[in-house]
Inverse folding.
């Protein structure tokens, strides 16, 4: 099924729990920040990461299927959530202007869930929890690349780079990271989840 800019109609009453004045990307940022503060305040990060982070072996073998939804609302530290939410704010607001709020939320959630499913399937024996919104963010990067390939973004807030070149550069880094992960027992960056989210986003857009 080809979904050109998600030209689909559906009803999702859950989305109406939030006031219409609140943008979709703002809803996502708000939820992530509230959960991060909650985890930091109550110091239960390790417990929640075990049960609600995405552990590939448990999600697929033990059917902890809720982890495909919960993992990308959890973050490990301040820098982790800051850069993810900054990127979501930077590109999410323009994508939402094209999609509308409901379709934007559908797209974001779909990339996060299916990107996590694909990533976990490709490393099904892993017992290391995956957390963070990066897979869904990379799905947004796919949409932004298709919509605005020549848009200039400031790399590190300093160097202007066109989106199409920036995404290519980031993909190379993640591909190298995936190969390096075969030789490392532990990495705090899930490069495979990034690429999985990107692939899901490209499939949705085309």
């Amino acid at each position: 099924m080809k979904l050109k800019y998600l030209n689909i109609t559906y009803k999702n009453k859950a989305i109406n729990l939030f006031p219409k004045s609140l943008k979709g990307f703002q809803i996502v940022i708000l939820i992530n920040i509230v959960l991060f503060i909650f985890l930091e305040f109550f110091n239960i990060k390790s417990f929640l990461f075990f049960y609600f982070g995405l552990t590939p072996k448990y999600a697929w073998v033990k059917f902890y299927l809720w982890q495909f939804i919960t993992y990308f609302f959890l973050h490990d530290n301040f820098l982790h959530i800051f850069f993810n939410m900054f990127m979501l704010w930077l590109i999410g607001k323009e994508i939402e202007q094209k999609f509308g709020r409901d379709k934007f939320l559908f797209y974001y959630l779909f990339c996060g869930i299916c990107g996590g499913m694909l990533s976990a399937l490709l490393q099904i024996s892993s017992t290391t929890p995956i957390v963070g919104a990066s897979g869904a963010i990379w799905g947004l990067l796919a949409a932004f690349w298709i919509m605005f390939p020549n848009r200039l973004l400031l790399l590190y807030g300093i160097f202007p780079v066109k989106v199409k070149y920036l995404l290519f550069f980031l993909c190379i880094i993640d591909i190298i990271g995936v190969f390096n992960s075969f030789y490392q027992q532990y990495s705090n960056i899930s490069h495979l989840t990034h690429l999985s989210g990107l692939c899901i986003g490209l499939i949705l857009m085309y």
The radius of gyration is 17 Å.
